[in-house]
Amino acid sequence: MPHSSSSTLRTLPLKRRICFLIKLTCFVSSVFLFCEFLIYYVVIFQCHWPEVKAGAHKGDGEIPTSVLKALFLADTHLLGEIKGHWLDKLRREWQMERSFQTALWLLQPDIVFILGDVFDEGKWSSPQAWADDVRRFQKMFRHPVPTELVVVVGNHDIGFHYEMTSYKVKRFEKAFNFTSGKLVTRKGVNFVLVNSVALEGDGCAECRAAEAELAALSRTLNCSRQNRTHSSRRCSDVGRLPASAPILLQHYPLHRKSDAACTGEDAAPPEERNVPFKEKYDVLSREASLKLLWWFHPRLVLSGHTHSACEVLHAGRIPEISVPSFSWRNRNNPSFIMGSLTPTDFALRKCFLPSESRVFAAYGAAGALLAVLLLAHCQLLTPPVYFAQRLISKHKAV
Known about the structure:
Elements: H1 5-11, H2 14-44, E1 68-73, H3 86-107, E2 111-115, H4 127-140, E3 148-152, H5 155-158, H6 166-176, E4 182-186, E5 189-193, H7 205-224, E6 247-249, H8 270-273, H9 286-296, E7 300-303, E8 310-314, E9 318-322, E10 335-341, E11 346-352, H10 356-377, H11 382-397
Parallel strand pairs: 1-2, 2-3, 5-6, 6-7, 7-9
Antiparallel strand pairs: 1-10, 4-5, 8-9, 10-11
C-alpha cells in the first residue's frame, strides 16, 4: 500500500526533515523576493535616457545638466471602495508602488507627470473615500524633494462632462494644485496642463473657466515667442516666458478616428483598433482639438485615456504620443515614457515594466519544481523510476 507524503515525512530522520524544510523555505522566499521586488530593478535597469542635442556631453551616457529629464505615465486608476476588491487593490498598488519607486531610484528624473485618471472612482467618491484615496496615492507615489510630481486631471477623477461638478473639480485642484491652463516651466521647457474633460464646447461654467484660462495662457506664450523689438502693442502688458514652443499635456487624446494606424506590442489589440472613437468620450472633438493646436502651436502632445500606445501626427508636423496605462489591471505590459527635453528639442523612449504573464510563469515554474522536489524528497518518485529501469532491462534482454 503506497505511503502518503505526510507519513513518509514522519519516517525521515528529524535532522533531515529540518534541513529540507529550511531549504524549502529559502527557495520559496527567493522566488517571492525576485517576483515581487527584484524583478522591477532587473527590468527598469535596462532603461536609459534618450540622447538629445544640447551641447557637449559630460561623459559617456550622461545627460547634460541643461537637459530636463521627465517621466510621463498615465491611468494609474487606484481602485476605490465601491468596485475595488481589497486583494485586487493590494496587488495593483504594490506593483505600481514598486515600479514607481524603483524608477525614481534608478533613473532620478527631474520631474514626473501623471496624465489623468489617477483614481478609478474619483467621480463617485464620498469625502471620506476621496481622502483615503489621496492618502494612498501620496504613499505610493512619494518622491524625494529634488523630483517634482505634477498631476493632470482625467474623467475618472472628476467624471465625464455630464458628471463633472464645480465641487469635484475644486476638490481635485486642492489635492494636486492643478488648474486647467496651468503652465509649468522647468529649464526653459514650457508645459501646458489642460483639463480636457472641460473642453466640451457647450458653454458650461467649468468649460468657460477652462477655456478662458487657456486663452490667456496662449496669449502669454505667443507673445513670449515674438521678437521683443517687433512685439505688437497687444503684448506690451504680458509677462515674458521662455520663448519655447510648449508641450501639451492632457488626458483625452486629440481628435482621431480610431487606433487603426497604431502599431507596437502595447498598441490596442487588433480587434479594437478599427473601432471608431466617439468624440468627447474617447477623444476630444475635432473643434476642441483644432482650437488647442491653433492656440498653442505645440511641438509635442502627450495624452492618456485609451490605456494603449499610439503615435499620430497632427497637421503633418505635431506628434502626439498616447501613453499606455501604468496599471497591470489595464495591461499585461505597462510602461512609461522617458523624455530628455530642451527648449528647442526633445527625445523620447519607452520603458516597459515587468509583464505580469512572465511573473505568473515564474511562479508556475517554481511551483512545479517545488512539487517535484517535494515528491522526490518523500521518495514518492522512486517506484516510477524503478518501473522505468525494469522496462529498459527487459528491452535489453529481448
